[in-house]
Structure formats: C-alpha cells, structure tokens
Amino acid sequence: MLNNELCILAQSFFKLNLLYSFGILIAGLLLKIIAIFNTKIKLGVEGRADTFSKLKTIITANDKTLWFHCASLGEYEQGLPVFTELRKDYPTHKIVLSFFSPSGYEIRKNAPFADVVIYLPLDSRANAKRFLDLVNPELTIFVKYEIWPNILNELKKRELKAVLISAVFRENQSFFKWYGKHTKEALFAFEHIFTQNEASKLLLESIDYNSVTVSGDTRFDRVTNQLKQDNTLDFISEFKDDNLCVVIGSSWPEDEKLLVNYINTQANKTTKFIIAPHNIKTAQIESLKRSISKKCVLFSEKKGKRLNDYEVLILDTIGLLTKVYSYADIAYIGGAMGTTGLHNTLEAAVFGVPIIIGKNHFKFPEAQTMINNIGMISISNQEELTNALDLFISNNEQRTRYGENNFNYIKKNKGAVVQILHFLRI
Length: 426
Prior knowledge:
This protein is an alpha/beta fold.
C-alpha cells in the first residue's frame, strides 16, 4: 500500500490547490524511483502508464459510460453488489472500473461486468481533464474513502453526477480540520454520500454537507449473496471427511507462527486445518509447509492423493476462500496479529461460524461489534489462541452460540444496496 500512502501523504500535507498538485507531481516521481526496488509499486507505475491508451482503445466519443472507482480489493468487494445491478440497468453503456492499488487491479482486472479495467491516473489537474475527456461518465461511483480533489472538482465543473457509497469518516481527517479546505471542497462534488454509520453522517453535517444517508455497509449484502451461490468444492469435502474443520483465512507470518505451533503441539487428530495464506509466493508456501509436523498437502499437489488422509491443507491459490468458509466449523481471520490490517471477517460470519482474530482490530468496527455480540474472540498471544481454539473445538454449544450470533449480525445489517439503488434509479 506504499503507493497509496504516498498520495494520501500528499493530500494531507499540501492543502492548497497549487501545492496539492505539486505534491502529486512529487509523489509520482517518488513512486517511479521506489518502483525500481519494489515489485508491487512497479506494477502500479507501469499500469498507470497504460491507462490512457487502454481507454482510447475501448471508449469512443459516441459511447455512454459509467465509471466505478475503488482503492483496492476490499473496496471492490463493497461496491460489487451495486456494480452488478447497475450493469443490468445500463446494458448498452460501457463500464470503466478503476483501481489505485495493484492488489485490487491485479486480482480483478478481468471483472466480468466491466468493459475496461484500469489504474486511476495520479490526481493532477492535467490527468483529471484528460481522463474525463475520454470517459465522460454519465454516472460515477466512488467507494468508501477515495477522495481525489482534482478529479472530483473536474467532475463537478462538468456537472457530471457522482456519488460516494459505503463511506466512513473519522474526526481526525483533513475534511474536518481548519486546514482541509481543498479536500473538504472535493466532497461537495458528490451529489449524495451513503455512509456506513451515523457518526460519519454527523461529521459531514458538521461541515454543512447534508445530502447524506446512513445506508450501512454494502459488504453485508455482498456476503449474503454468497449464500445463494453453489459453494460446493469436492476436494474440500474429501479433505474434511466429516471432521471438525478450522479454516485459517488470509494469514500472515505473525498469525501462522502461533497457529502452526498449535497445530503441531495441541491439535487432536480428528480436527482438520485449512490454511489460505495471504501471500502465496512459492518460497513462503514451502517454508510454511516445512514448519508443519502434521501430515500436510498443498492445493497444487492434491491430484492423485487421498486427501482425507491429510490433517492440514494449504491453499497455494486464490479465489476459493469465500467458498471454503462454507466448510468451516471455526474460522481464524488473519492480518490483525501484525499491522497489515484485518481481512474480511464478514465472509466467514455469514456461514454462521465462530471467529478468532488478532489484537490489532480497532480500525475495523464490524470486528468490535462481533466481539461485543459474542461471535468473535480477539487474541494477543499463544495462550489466548490455544484457549480460544480449545473452547470452540471441545464445546459444541459455545461453537454454535458464537456462530449463530455472527449469522444474525449479518442478517440484521444487510440492505444497503437496496437503498443506494433506489436513489440511483429515481
């Protein structure tokens, strides 16, 4: 996320319009230098270099368009229920989907509802004008907190309709400070803002932005739709073989250190473990496998093997985790033992699964709510992880109670998509 952080830094530091644009220019130069040493940033730099040529190839002056923008993969998942419905509403329009981060673009660059998927160009005045000259969107949707002043002000100048969905605001953001005039003005480019919570609405109203609705988080609708899908995976059924199954989703080394120790020293032979690491580079996967003393198999080597003979399955692939959660009796969601950020806990919660997470979850309000609702346990060390897993593995009543509380939480909070679409369809 270093590329995103640099541009956020530019937004925060250079508050006035000219200084902000100068800051974006400097950020662009820094990114090109850092790209020499960082593969992820190099993807973003090279991808942005192709943005305008891709648009010219796909979009013509006669096309009607919709533009959807997401920072990264998480925002894409929030916007997806809205995007797919609008695809049905505008079948002849061309849809432009943009990302800022490679972690979003590289995974969803073939999104089926979009006609072209691109990297958002850096937010200079020249790029903003050139981008909108090419796209000229009839409707623009930004997701959560992507606020790019030059692009948004250019949208407003051209009187093009834009809305922000699933927005979350905090008091310490520049929009609500004396020095944040430039970024605050950008918010007024949105015809309407849909927030996840009442606190965000009140913050917007404090700066006299009043076209706001508390709709909730579209991710609840997104994960609820997963229940309508066929989540069957024959190889997972074979591996689980009617045993209790712990699914470890989007794990990082900080998570895996504790989990592997539990698997090696505490786990009984009738409990199966599925590990879906966030990073699936070959060296790290092989290192993870070597650290496990139980009988362990990789997804990539499963062909021809009797999977029910194994105790641990490592998913060295992507795109399966949402379905795999349907086989979980217990879920551990990674990211919060370190500082990388907690991954999506709602994907497991919708299947009525009790959840364990790490200690650094305070920027994720849904996690705190599930903890308060007795659906999730936060752990900070080996002993606490052992206690949590032992509780859920040995106590069916508690496992069921926590899981039902999570399912009910999802059920109670769905409905954001209906409100957003109602506004857009008027």
